[in-house]
Design goal:
Blueprint lengths: L1 H6 L1 H12 L17 H12 L7 H7 L3 H29 L4 H9 L1 H37 L12 H12 L13 H23 L23 H7 L6 H6 L6 H30 L17 H32 L8 H21 L4 H7 L1 H22 L6 H32 L22
Helix pairs in contact: 3-9, 3-12, 4-12, 5-6, 5-12, 5-16, 6-7, 7-8, 7-13, 7-14, 7-15, 9-12, 9-13, 16-17
């Protein structure tokens, strides 16, 4: 390992300094540093995480074969998911960086920087595209319910016009900020809207007039069915791409405080996903759960309409967070400084938003493409944190003299292998979904089942 030490002498020196001294941000006057406080950081992490797979979880509980296996599997994965968030924050301290691609550049060189940046750009653009399509789906359903399918022939009620206007009014103004801490206020709104959706699903379960024909199961008939929930877990808890920028925006940037924020956010998401999964599964019963739980409710009540609209509002507040990460990676790839090149940052933002909006309007169902891109989620959650932890330990203790470092190396190898396994599972599901005649409904989805527009 001597050659590795020689090539990264400067990094090791910085690392040792960071290990024996306070983080540079802690030596400043905290009152002069702007950024998010603990509560705002929790809102940001929760908003970036919660909602991505919320509407899929009831069907995932059904496909996984029962409540017990679904909850246990989700909890086990959550331990590693939370650990990965903390690993990314710690590695950003070690390298003194504010983005995942810069961290990879410090650890593994320029080629790894290019690979990481490209993965972030692809995933971010696919996610933004999905948000816009889902927004269009929600307004389509509301208009079809209250106006009738003839809304398609009225230009000011058409999907393309409504999507373009609503997104330009509520999303675009939030996309120009150069720091994530400004978006903490919008994130609090997104969290509140999701709480309403969760309440609605619970309410529908306890007020249903008929019991499901097939009651929900506790344990699966086949243990392999448990694998069905893994892709949904990865999509639902994928906030790791934004973890380092969120940590960098904290007013008091300390690993202990970020760890508290990450743990609290993951607990909130775990409770929300589990409650929705149980109540949605109990409402419809085994084998009858729709891929989008809100699609299963057919009444025209106001409370249901509000839930549908709130899903759109939630996507309004999450789109700018994902765009921020993708734009930052793109600017870094082009060698631009986000603080210096303000006009270029605005230009890139407009191009990104306009292109995603046009594609979302022209191609209303791109679920196969999003499914393939979904394999990247396992990389961000497990593989990237694993290899970063591996390299950071080797830089500090190349001979692994300490038992703690040996255990951390084993853990890094384990979560990297786990990520490779999960990526393989998701990829297989994607290939099956892309087949001309799938033998079962598509389970893997970037955020939720994307359907064709109601407007023909």
């Amino acid at each position: 390992m001597n050659y590795l030490i020689g090539e990264t002498e400067e990094l090791i020196s910085n690392d040792m300094l960071l290990c024996t001294a306070p983080h540079p941000s802690s030596t400043r006057d905290e009152t002069s540093r702007s950024g998010t406080k603990v509560l705002s950081t929790i809102f940001l992490i929760t908003n970036a995480t919660l909602g991505a797979g919320l509407l899929n979880f009831p069907q995932a509980f059904d496909k996984a074969g029962g409540l017990a296996t679904s909850i246990i599997t989700q909890f086990v994965f959550l331990i590693f998911i939370t650990a990965a968030l903390i690993i990314l924050a710690n590695c950003s301290d070690v390298t003194n960086t504010c983005s995942m691609q810069d961290m990879f550049s410090k650890f593994y060189g320029h080629k790894s920087f290019l690979l990481c940046a490209i993965c972030i750009i692809i995933y971010s653009f696919g996610a933004c595209l999905t948000f816009l399509i889902v927004i269009g789906d929600q307004f389509d359903r509301v208009l079809a319910t209250y106006y009738g399918l003839n809304y398609c022939h009225t230009w000011y009620l058409s999907r393309s016009f409504i999507t373009a206007v609503m997104c330009s009014v509520f999303i675009l103004p939030l996309c120009f900020f150069k720091r994530l801490d400004i978006l903490s206020y919008a994130s609090s709104v997104g969290c509140i809207t999701i709480l309403y959706v969760i309440w609605l699903i619970i309410y529908k379960n306890f007020t249903k007039t008929e019991s499901p024909v097939n009651p929900m199961k506790i344990w699966p008939d086949n243990n392999l069915e448990t694998l069905q929930i893994i892709p949904v877990i990865c999509f639902a808890y994928q906030s790791h791409m934004t973890a380092i920028p969120m940590y960098a925006c904290m007013k008091d940037r300390k690993l202990g405080k970020f760890t508290f924020c990450a743990v609290m956010s993951m607990i909130i998401c775990f409770i929300a996903y589990t409650v929705v999964g149980i109540c949605g599964y109990a409402t419809f019963g085994a084998g009858k759960v729709p891929s989008d739980i809100l699609q299963g409710y057919t009444d025209k009540s106001v409370i249901l309409t509000l839930a549908i609209i709130f899903i759109a509002v939630k996507n309004f507040t999450t789109y700018p967070i994902i765009l921020y990460c993708g734009r930052d990676a793109l600017l870094n790839l082009l060698g631009m400084d986000i603080n210096v090149n303000v006009k270029f940052r605005v230009f890139i933002t407009l191009i990104w938003y306009t292109l995603s909006l046009i594609i979302a309007i022209v191609v209303p169902d791109i679920s196969p493409v999003i499914n393939v891109l979904g394999t990247l989620s396992a990389l961000f959650i497990f593989v990237f944190p694993g290899i970063c932890l591996f390299q950071s330990i080797l830089l500090k203790d190349s001979e692994l003299h300490l038992n703690k470092d040996r255990l951390l190396i084993i853990f890094a190898i384990f979560i990297t292998g786990l990520g490779a396994f999960v990526s393989g599972v998701i990829l297989i599901e994607c290939i099956q979904d892309l087949s001309p005649a799938p033998h079962k409904p598509s389970l893997v989805t970037g955020f939720r089942q994307l359907r064709e527009s109601l407007c023909k």
